[in-house]
TrEMBL record, chain A:
The gene is metN_8. Residues 9-257 form the ABC transporter domain. PANTHER family: AMINO ACID ABC TRANSPORTER ATP-BINDING PROTEIN (PTHR45772:SF7), CONSERVED COMPONENT OF ABC TRANSPORTER FOR NATURAL AMINO ACIDS-RELATED (PTHR45772). Its EC number is 3.6.3.-. This is Methionine import ATP-binding protein MetN. CDD domains: ABC_Mj1267_LivG_branched (cd03219). It holds the Pfam family BCA_ABC_TP_C. The lineage of its organism: unclassified sequences, metagenomes, ecological metagenomes. GO terms for cellular component: plasma membrane. Keywords: ATP-binding, Hydrolase, Nucleotide-binding, Transport. It comes from bioreactor metagenome. SUPFAM superfamilies: P-loop containing nucleoside triphosphate hydrolases.
């Protein structure tokens, strides 16, 4: 399942402190091209902070983030997007009062070089480009099964579809690496299963590498390999689903059989 | 008749400035309490050019608009780069507007606080209508373009906008410059309509009125603020018979709109939407 591809993303010694709190503490991991890599870990382990660091929303305190052997740390989010990293958010962030079509069209437009004056005057060239992008946006919506909702305002969509729309918008930036922050949050088991199928399908269809954070263990164990486990901002374990499941440190972190509980029984 | 004509012209001139502020506040989501300053820059630049240097009117108008755009960079670059949140930006630009007015009051060439009298009255109804129509068309095209889409994305969610590839600072600055150009054009027309300008015509009160029209008309609508602006200019005039109560009525109207339609007259949609087949103002269609 894991293609022995080249490393697409390499994170080394990544650290982010907020005041005295070390949210991410010397975290290192890699993402191989073509894989679906999963990041799991207890709440507050620093998973989303890692996403925010990789996408430039936060600046790393220390450490390097190499994407295609190029340093990303310190770049602005929009510059990182142009390098080929896109993401979705844990708490959905759509352009709420715009239609689904416009949500997808916005990133498509940003990629298109066009003349400012031509746009203001509405020249035929501009109109032609608009029509082309419109079609591409419709195709994208269709590939996620959203074409029926093209003129719906984004915040009127049902929750599950809003998540899909966010993926569609991220894909519109034509990423090489797609970060999904808890894509199955708030979904029932059935929706979660169809999401798993969707994620695999998206990887094939858009030949994109996927890195996802998730709490639904069945989803992660099913589609992710390798899996990276975080705890207290640092790497706890990494490997195939079976390796991770068998790792005593991971079991301890999830079931709370750590040193502390020993102390408590001793005391 | 002349009286009504002059009200219509004034309303149209005001609508051009409101249109500009609508792009900045309504579509980019940044508040401004200082856009009257850009109207002043446009008015003074174009008036000085025709008054002292006999520059042709249209050239002077364009120069006024351009000057307003340039001046907006002075306040826009430092404040928008610092990513000041909307309300902080509004205060920063408020200070800028007042400072600019004081400068105008103390310059030789502007004739200080006494103002510039005897500017040629080039602004006629056709001129104003052409400017307004052109302004609406360009605004509509702008909002459809990648820059307009970027502005609206920033209003909706700045973080998500950046992750959609939008350059935050550049887009906000562009929006400010475009809105300032509109205000500058409006100022040039105003100067050549009234034939007299003085610094007190461009105070916080004017900035507030522009902002009130945008908010009452509907953030994220072009037609809404235009209607509101027309009403706000027309209503006090129509109620002139009622003497001092007319300003009360103006205030009351504003309060009523905000209470009963907090999203503004048109909300986030356009007037044209109601005339379209299947026209559904909420933006969701059948199926």
């Amino acid at each position: 399942m894991t293609a022995a591809g080249r490393p697409l993303l390499e994170v080394a010694g990544l650290t982010k402190t907020f005041g005295g709190i070390r949210a991410v503490d010397g975290f290192s991991f890699g993402v191989t091209e073509g894989s679906i890599t999963g990041i799991i870990g207890p709440n507050g382990a620093g998973k989303t902070t890692v996403f925010n660091l990789v996408t430039g929303i936060y600046r790393p305190t220390e450490g390097t983030i190499l994407f295609e052997e190029e340093e990303m740390g310190g770049l602005r989010p929009d510059a990182i997007v142009r390098k080929g990293i896109a993401r979705t958010f844990q708490n959905i962030r759509l352009f709420n009062r715009r239609t689904c079509l416009e949500n997808v069209l916005t990133p498509l437009l940003q990629r298109e070089p066009c003349s400012f004056l031509g746009a203001l005057l509405g020249t035929p060239g501009t109109r032609r480009m608009e029509r082309e992008l419109h079609d591409r946006a419709m195709d994208l919506l269709a590939s996620l099964g959203l074409e029926r909702y093209a003129d719906w305002q984004a915040n009127t969509l049902p929750y599950g579809l809003q998540r899909k729309l966010e993926i569609a918008r991220a894909l519109a930036t034509e990423p090489k690496l797609l970060l999904l922050d808890e894509p199955a949050a708030g979904m029932n088991p059935e929706e979660t299963r169809s999401l798993a199928a969707l994620v695999s399908e998206v990887r094939e269809k858009f030949s994109v590498t996927i890195l996802l954070i998730e709490h639904h263990m069945d989803l992660v164990m099913n589609i992710c390999s390798p899996i990276v486990v975080m705890n207290f901002g640092a790497l706890l374990a990494a490997g195939t689903p079976d390796e991770v499941r068998a790792n005593p440190g991971v079991v301890a972190a999830y079931l709370g059989k750590g040193k502390k509980s020993h102390d408590r029984t001793a005391g | 008749m002349d009286y009504i004509l002059s009200i219509v012209i004034l309303a149209c001139i005001n609508m051009i400035a409101v249109l500009g502020l609508s792009i900045f506040t309504g579509f980019t989501g940044l508040f401004s309490l200082g856009h009257a300053a850009f109207v002043a820059v446009g008015a003074y630049t174009s008036a000085i050019l025709t008054y002292y240097y006999y520059v042709p009117f249209y050239l002077a108008l364009a120069a006024g608009a351009a000057a307003a755009g340039l001046v907006s960079l002075v306040i826009g670059v430092p404040t928008l780069r610092a990513k000041l949140r909307s309300d902080y930006f509004a205060i920063a630009i408020l200070g800028f507007g007042e400072a600019l007015r004081v400068i105008l009051e103390n310059l030789e060439i502007t004739n200080g606080a006494r103002g510039l009298p005897g500017i040629d009255g080039f602004t006629t109804l056709p001129v104003v209508l052409v400017c307004l129509a052109g302004g609406v068309l360009v605004a509509r095209n702008f909002l459809r373009s990648r820059w307009g889409a970027a502005c609206i994305a920033i209003r909706e969610d700045p973080v998500a906008a950046e992750m959609a590839g939008v350059r935050l600072f550049r887009t906000r600055l562009l929006s400010l410059v475009v809105s300032a150009v509109y205000c500058g054009l409006s100022g040039g027309l105003l100067a050549h309509f009234l034939s007299f300008i003085q610094p007190v015509m461009f105070t916080l009160v004017q900035s507030t009125q522009l902002l009130a029209a945008v908010i009452a008309g509907g953030m994220g609508s072009i037609s809404g603020p235009l209607i509101a602006s027309f009403v706000f200019i027309g209503l006090p005039e129509a109620l002139r018979v009622a003497q001092m109560w007319r300003l009360v009525a103006y205030g009351l109207l504003l309060v009523l709109i905000m209470v009963y339609r907090p999203q503004g007259l048109m909300g986030y949609s356009e007037l044209s939407r109601f005339f379209r087949k299947n026209g559904n103002p909420e933006g969701r269609s059948r199926s």
